[in-house]
Amino acid sequence: MNGVSVLQIAREQFYSLAPPSIARPGLAWLQLVWLVLSGLVGLAFGFTAPTRDPGASILAANAVFTALSVTMAMFFWPRAINMKADARFSATDERWHVYRLTTQLFWTVLVGILATGLAVIQLVIPDRLALWFGVVELELTSTVIQALSVGLTVYQVLLLAQSVFRLYAATYWMPRA
């Protein structure tokens, strides 16, 4: 049995191997645009950091978004396995819709886990970071982690939006059960 690594999921998310009838082969420019857009939102947040800590709100948003992406993955997973077992479906290009959605959902879950972890770290910063590591620039460190957390949350929302469209495309092309 071959294992799947995080790097393989990232590669399949950012570099399409799908045939031209399904998607443009090669680098997925939209994914890069979304990363840049999310980074810019995080950077803007960092420069206009609010006076109150938004950590709890970001954590709640990440928890909801991650739960939604996990639910979508759990909903679609059995159907994807059944489709891979269907010889008629496996011989068509439409199978790539299923593969792309599966990759998209797992990438969204991984981004959500990372964003939630950063949000938890963000909640710990004011109390413990200075004590544990002797960080002098606590305000700057907190702002940078908040900006990263906000940027990842924006990226996660964009991935969820794309997941909904890919879910529609994949279920549209699936044979009727």
Outline the structure in words:
Helix content is 78%, strand content 2%. By secondary structure, the chain is mainly alpha-helical. It has one domain. Strands 1-2 form a two-stranded antiparallel sheet. Helix 1 crosses helix 5, helix 3 packs parallel to helix 6 and helix 5 packs antiparallel against helix 6. The radius of gyration is 19 Å and the shape is elongated.
Give the secondary structure arrangement, pairings included:
Blueprint: H1 6-14, E1 15-16, E2 26-27, H2 29-47, H3 55-85, H4 87-90, H5 95-133, H6 138-173
Antiparallel strand pairs: 1-2
Helix pairs in contact: 1-5, 2-6, 3-5, 3-6, 5-6
Distance between the termini: 28 Å
The biggest sheet amounts to:
2 strands, antiparallel
Mean pLDDT: 80
Radius of gyration: 19 Å
Based on helices, strands and strand pairing, what is the structural class? mainly alpha
Contiguous low-pLDDT stretches (5 residues minimum) are none
Number of helices: 6
Task: Count all strands and give the number.
Answer: 2
Helical residue percent?
A: over 70%
**In percent terms, what proportion of residues is strand?**
under 5%
